[in-house]
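To: structure desk
From: M.T.
Subject: fold request, one chain
Message: Could you run this one when you get a chance? Sequence is below, nothing fancy, just the single chain.
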Amino acid sequence: MFQRITLLSAFLLTCCLHAATTGKAIKFGKLWDGHQVIAHAVVIVDGDQIKSVTANGPIPAGMETIDLSEYTGIPGMIDMHTHITYYWNGDTSIDARRQKPRREAITVVLSQRNGMKALEAGVTTLRDLNAAGGADFDLRDLINMGAFVGPRLFVSGRGLHGLPKIPTMDEKIAEQIKATKETIAAGADWVKIFGSTGGFDNVTGDQTVSYEEMKAVVDEAHAEGHKVAIHSYGPAGARDAIRAGCDTLEHATDMDDATIAELVRKKIWYVPTIDHNEYYVENAETTYKFPAGAKENLEDYIHRNFITAQKAYKAGARMLVGSDAVYNGFGLNMRELTWFMKMGMTNEQAMQTATVNAAEALGMENKLGSVAPGYFADMVAVEGDPMTDIQVVLKNVRWVMKGGAVVSDKTKGFPTHTN
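Reply: Done. Structure tokens follow.
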């Protein structure tokens, strides 16, 4: 009996010692935690969450230590407007938008490749706005289950459109409410409304969903605890989206001063997605086979989009990074930051649009966007200092952790040891 008790005690002691030394310690040369810079930071990770953040803090004996002292740590970044299920196989002989239809399961698997490119660029969370067939729901769920490696996903399913074949407003409103309920019941985190024309080489921006319909969708979604993103390339749809009380406004060019003032007053988040049209210009012939004149139209729209976004920023609008990434745009997710810098943002303000501010817009301000105790262990190591050079987060991402697991390492093998 004594021997059995001794063996049991030894087993329990071993378990306790193991429990005391589980987790990881991450050492950064310096860390921007979302609000301040901490020199010689030590981040203790327990499971998928951050346990502590200290300067030159102690590391428990026996804990695995990842030494990233040559790098700057930042929170995992958040892209608030993507289309992860838009996968392109790289065949330049066809328009990427004209690929043969794929079964949903194949789309899900291929979409993971887009997600991995975002992860490798330091983007650990995506909000995805418009996908067919439930592929975005499936990909999100597979990632959350641990079956796939990928970024955290907040998804909308298929976006809601205008209803030109329905003659009366009451019928339109009823149908939009029904569609909202169905979208949420299917598993959407957000509801997306296409409030105007516009996309790819189409920069028309004509309003397609009325204020009354937008308001009905927003009210229904909010009643069910969900948020709404409204797409409008032009000013009329943007004005009515703001009136309707959307949570985020996407694209929105040529807004007048009164509309911008209302955007600011209502504290609605603005996702201008300036860079995605620059990306279209760069790929007009190879990836998209745009017609003659498309590049000129896009360049004009980019200019107006930037001017509108700059006016909104100077008026006090709350801005967020959205790449609108499609096809081979994944991995370029943070180029929008360069446009925000051109508007006059400081480096820290620009970085906050992709971290703490984006987390707040998602309703995840206590879990994402910062490196702090109780938050998910989503962290990135970059070579250089993003507080002095924003390009380092675009070009110099060297290491990425999502939920306590290292998902990308380009440090030529980070030093790892047991303390």
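Reply (cont.): The chain is about 35% helix and 20% strand. Let me know if you need anything else for the meeting.
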